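Notes from hallway chat w/ T.B., transcribed later so I don't forget. T.B. wanted the structure written out for a chain they're using in a teaching module, and asked if we could keep both sequence and structure tokens in one place. Agreed to drop them here.
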Amino acid sequence: MSEFKDKFVQAAAWCGSAAPGRREAGFTVIEMLMVVAIFGIMAATAAPSFSSLIASKRAETAATDLYVALIESRSEATKRNANATLAQKTGGWQVGWQIHVVDPTDSTITLTLEDHAVTNGVTISGPDNVVFQSSGRVQGNTNPAFAVNVVNGSTSDLRWVCIDLSGRPMVKTSACP
């Protein structure tokens, strides 16, 4: 038994030490610091373009949300054969919007079909409301248009939501005609 113990101790001692002239595996502190420094430089270089991407996607999302609300308002107007109004909440479009329809059973009651809030940092400007007639057309003689602006740090992105008189909305990256 003692002989086995001696051989075990010798094997353990041999495995724990490096062979003469051979380096141990692993990284030195200097190598790790160089990797961290290179990673930091690359991250600092990528940050401005990432800020631009965030602003662009937030503007695109807010413009799409408004576009969907316009489509829904138009659909409700044709479905219910009554005017449907997409109106800003008290405080402006950047606070949110609601879709209203007059109750078909009682014309003194207005039904709120949707109540939508907007994310922080989004500025929306446009008409106070958009009324869709039962035909799906926009009420009035001018094309309603909305400007959706997002500022993220020093980067800003602007999207436009345009509505033609036939009632068809569209999202654009350039100003409405």
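Follow-up for T.B.: The chain has a mean pLDDT of 84. Might be a good example for the class.
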